[in-house]
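Protocol step 4 of 5: obtain the predicted structure for the target chain.
Materials: sequence only (see below). No template structures provided, no constraints applied. The aim of this step is simply to have a reference model before the mutagenesis design in step 5. Sequence pasted as it appears in the construct record:
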Amino acid sequence: MSLRLIYPPQTDPTAPDVELIDLAARVCAMGGHLLDANQLAFRRFLSGSHAAARCALLEKKLTDSTPDEGLLNGDHAYGYYRLLRSKLLQSDLSEEDAGHMLSELLQQDASPRRQDVLRQDIERRLEVGIAPYYGQLRLNDLTAVHSTEVSSDLRAVCKDQSFPYHDFWRDLIGRVGVKASETWLVWLDADQQLLPTMSLLKALSEFSTHGEDLPNLVFCGPVSPSLNKAKKCGALPDVPVEILPDKPSVMAKLADADIGVSPHHWVSAIESFTLQGPAVPVLRVTASPESNHAFHSMLASGALDETSVRLLFVAPSTPDALLDLAGLLAGKEAAWSATLGFGRTLSREVAQRLAHAGLSSLMFEVKGFVGWADESSAQEGLLASWRAAKQAGLYVSLTLVYGFPRDTASSFERFISFLEKNRDEIDQILRLKLYRVPIGSPAHQTPEDFGIVELMDPGNADLPRTLHFRSETGLNSENFFQTAAELAPRLKLRDNDLPPSPLHADEGKPNAVEIPEQTKSGLTEEVGDNLKVTKAPGVRLVQTQFDYRALDDLYGDFRPRPNTPPPQPTNVAAKKAWLAYNAGNGRIVNLSDVLGGLLSKAEEPSSFKDLTGSFPPAAREKIELALKKLMEHGLLVPEPQTAYISA
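Step 4 output (structure tokens):
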């Protein structure tokens, strides 16, 4: 059997799951080939050449479809907004540079704040990489739980020629080649892979139309059942596929071969699916380690004695389970991080033993005060656990879960007050999650055991993976998104708390620098007429004909679905101005037409006298003060600093 294992986009490329690595090692042992299309897609979409091509495509689309009559409708206005952002954010990265940029995410010595800034920078560049497609694709949202629960979204992807993965797959398949004698194992372990997978099937159907014999396609992995549902809904392109429901089915398919998986095969698999760079690669262990066959296979193979990895254990565990895990990893070089489940207390002794066994960070799953006998014991247990972990030298982070059915809104309010008073006991509040009822989960099968009184109909979602619910305590999950939007600002108690959502690439609304009404005497003497300044490195300028702030209010958080048009731009006024994007801090600044024009003239070193000489004497002092404000915003820099800042 000639095998090729393909891992489609779009998942976080920094930590592949050990289940994928296990399968890859087996494919290696059988003489097969490995293809990490996920990494390749990120490199492509981050590159400057791809971003420029997408930006040009969007500009042509707007020029072809609309005359110069202002913003005609929601589609036009949203397209114009995306074009502005694409021009501001596009980069000149090569695909190799993009790979280096991704690998920086693994640097352990980088501060959490630095990691957040880097991730936001990557997400901003990806936003350009997917323009002008603005449908349900969320390439730049690495934290998205679902990509789609409606089969019409999948069909829409195949019809939309601007979907960026179409050309990606055509090029990749052209390089790899298609052979009827080959079997392609396509591993799906994230919902976000569904839309790109539809594009893969579309590309293969095109090759088939042109007379190419297709390989035997086998889809497998935890998300493959969703693809099976889509097939039953008639949403898949007309390509023969086999869909295996679970990992044992995959193992059974490979059982005919005499597989001898060696540490070398595991190392090859790890190198193929992890980011390569100076930092140690990370492997994610999603399923509980006690019953995770792939994790135990890796341990038994001796692979951890042959290569250095960091292990990230995602499933919430008990202290006893973590001690068992520490025993399994004793003597290994692998550093590891883990998650402690809600309602569990960590003692000082256990924390010390875990740290001694290589545990570097511990994430606490916290569902308010749920899981404890009462709120008083919850407070005592949480504080004791956080302090024990910190004293052992562990990095302590929290994942907060809102909406557990047995919780109440008032109890969670009291928990927030408790957290505010004791924020110094932890290092970071990492994320706020909303409780969900996955189909097939215990909460779905026996909702009464979880205090759920009603599971709601999914409506037009013919590919549902979760259901809304009402609980005995009065919670209604349909209101959770609004509640979360209100809670998030209150939970950001430190700068590194709740890292900005990837969908909010800029921190806050755009700043504005206007020509001041009141002037300050003596400015010329303070700065000096002959001081030469230049536009700061990394600053990009774009002209706009409309109020960008109003556009950002309308479309900054907008993610349309098929048959859901963007809002009409009724309150977006014509406003000739400039936008300045500072790559150093990720901020977009509004500039008046006059200031933007002056900043554009400062591409070469210019003195204040040169920049303001054409203005009437009465206006010159105001302009000079505004130029000084541009310096305060980091958009203008004195000439002697230019070479230093560039370095």
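Step 4 remarks: Confidence is low (pLDDT under 50) at residues 134-146, 501-510, 517-527, 641-647. The two ends are 53 Å apart (CA to CA).
Proceed to step 5.
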